[in-house]
Specification:
alpha/beta, Rossmann fold, 7-stranded parallel beta sheet, about 50% helix
Length: about 425
């Protein structure tokens, strides 16, 4: 079949596109921008600004000779007011009308579990509006409502893997929430099966069992062999709502008032369903259990995802504190005396101390505000230079019980590791 996959750069879309092509379908990827590095002669790609295609006429040129359309477009956060309405309702409604007009044989529309017209969040309500728009047309269609999707390369899955490696954790609705994670491989297999005749009109795309968020994290932790079960405490909802409002100020934060509301609402079972229809589509192959999602090889990357930011902040605080102590807290006479022992003339002592303090403060601010890969070799050179100079000029510091020089050795090792792990260009 010639299949148009909308939202083909998203998590579900890109996995589905690969699965369709693997079994011989002529799948056309569609997204606002084609993936970087798309080679000449690669499979077809169509650049579409989905949010602007809100009339059936705008869709007609893109549906020529298309047998099926699979709509994977969806956003969890609005970047502009009205994005939910445009992307989840108006554009899909125009698409479905155009499909009916052009005779597209098959339409599969991905919505979300919990989507109802009176749902507590705009995300769910907009998804429900898109479903109603599809139901108004005489199309051979299926509405698919996925649960929480696990994929090793998914942003949310990476977040959960990272949380699962922490020594302890506090989450809102950690034990009262109910999710039913489904593996991306099972979801794609089900979507391929839905292209066959006599497919169901609706499908709750869920995994084999429902569980709390704390239990899901325990499954991932066990799969990574990340140690004994971690204590997961519940954060009170009033405190969680305050944290969500603050976190939502960051444009890429997964914690927002709406995501918190959906997590809390999941306690009534709106994010769970019977797995029997999914199991039937997989033709006897069992659904993958969340306990088998993660593997020990994923543990290092999961740990580094929170350890590297933590180490960056720790190093920034160290440089800022050193700058403050050097200039404001420690007697200048003592500092200039050490500089003199290292060959700095007394007349240059204050200026050298001021320059060193300013450099330390600048590095600390840069690590916090604009971290760059070249900051790590710069710190290596400075700490290594300080250590060598003091070893020759002030060797007594090696014998100090608080280890002002010996502590530089693990710091140098950390800086070297951070430099090599940093993937920024």
């Amino acid at each position: 079949m010639r299949i148009l996959v909308l939202g083909a750069t998203g998590l579900i879309g890109r996995h589905l596109l690969a699965a369709l092509r693997a079994v011989g379908h002529a799948a056309i990827g569609a997204s606002r921008k084609a993936p970087a590095g798309l080679a000449e002669g690669a499979p077809a790609w169509c650049e579409l600004d989905f949010g602007t295609l809100t009339s059936p006429e705008a869709w007609l040129p893109h549906l020529a000779h298309v047998d099926a359309v699979i709509n994977c477009v969806g956003i969890l956060r609005e970047h502009r007011p009205g994005d939910y309405e445009r992307l989840h309702h108006l554009a899909p409604a125009a698409l479905f009308a155009a499909c009916e007009r052009t005779g597209v044989r098959r339409v599969i529309h991905l919505s979300a579990l919990g989507s109802t017209e009176d749902a507590p969040t705009a995300y769910w309500r907009s998804k429900a509006a898109g479903e109603r728009a599809l139901e108004r047309h005489a199309l051979d269609s299926t509405i698919v409502r996925p649960s929480l999707v696990y994929s090793e390369d998914g942003a949310s899955s990476k977040l959960f893997l990272a949380l699962a490696t922490l020594p302890a954790l506090a989450l809102p609705a950690a034990h009262s929430s109910r999710v039913q994670p489904v593996h991306i491989g099972d979801l794609c297999a089900a979507l391929l099966a839905l292209l066959a005749p006599a497919a169901p009109r609706e499908l709750a795309a869920v995994g084999p069992r429902a569980m709390s968020m704390a239990a899901y994290l325990a499954c991932l932790r066990g799969g990574m062999a990340a140690g004994a079960a971690m204590p997961v405490l519940e954060v009170s909802m009033p405190l969680a709502r305050l944290a969500a409002r603050v976190a939502a100020l960051h444009p890429s934060s997964a914690l927002t008032p709406d995501s918190l509301a959906m997590l809390a609402a999941s306690a009534d079972g709106c994010n769970t369903a019977t797995p029997a229809p999914m199991q039937a589509l997989l033709a006897g192959r069992p659904l993958r259990d969340p306990a088998s999602f993660a593997a020990p090889a994923q543990k290092p990357a999961a740990v580094l995802s929170w350890a590297m930011p933590l180490a960056t902040i720790a190093m920034a605080v160290l440089w800022l504190w050193t700058a403050y102590v050097s200039w404001f807290a420690w007697p200048h006479a003592g500092s200039t005396g050490w500089l003199a022992a290292c060959g700095i003339p007394a007349a240059w002592g204050e200026a050298t101390l001021a320059a060193a303090s300013l450099l330390d403060a600048s590095i600390g601010c840069a690590l916090l505000l604009r971290p760059r890969r070249w900051l790590w070799p710069l710190q290596l050179a400075l700490v290594g230079g300080y250590t060598v100079a003091m070893s020759f000029c002030l060797p007594e510091f090696w014998l100090h019980p608080f280890g002002p020089l010996s502590k530089n050795l693990p710091i140098l090792a950390l800086l070297l590791a951070m430099w090599r792990l940093d993937e920024r260009k």
